[in-house]
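S1.2 Input.
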Amino acid sequence: MAIDVGGDLGVRAGGSYTDETTIVLDNPANASGTIDTINFQVREDVTNIRFGIFYLVSGTDYKCRSSTPDQGAFLAGVRQITGLSLAIVTGDFIGTYTTYSSGVNPIERDGSGFAGTMYSSGEHIDVDDQATYGLNAGDILSLNGTGTESGGGWAGEFGGVLADATDGFDGVAIDELDGV
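S1.3 Output.
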């Protein structure tokens, strides 16, 4: 099964904010595996943009599971990045971070009619970064990811290590199951 996460692309009423990490709540990941493609709609030319996969820890605290390095500059329009390998688990969300120098409103955004976005001032998009987020109720970004489901069986975390049922754990003692 193909994995998809995030919102549909399209020209929207406004643009995303800069110097904050934003997580899209619409369409959580439908399966576990790897995101290899990210699609996004650039409103205004952008530099210094990063993408990540996030999961809810508790309350309004989210943690970054996997992320890209800075992806460089993009002109306005529909854009796609391929050849990625971002770990994702069913129920995870896609997000982004851009700096102040990136542009004023880099990614297309609507402010009503959707599940919302979570936001946190500053950069929280390195793997294992955890932060408390606020809710922008009804918001959505024109941002999504697609990929391939794991090789079958259960996928999740064993003590913070992303794994699926096809991975070998020979000689490894598993003493904790997070989130199960």
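S1.4 Remarks. The radius of gyration is 16 Å.
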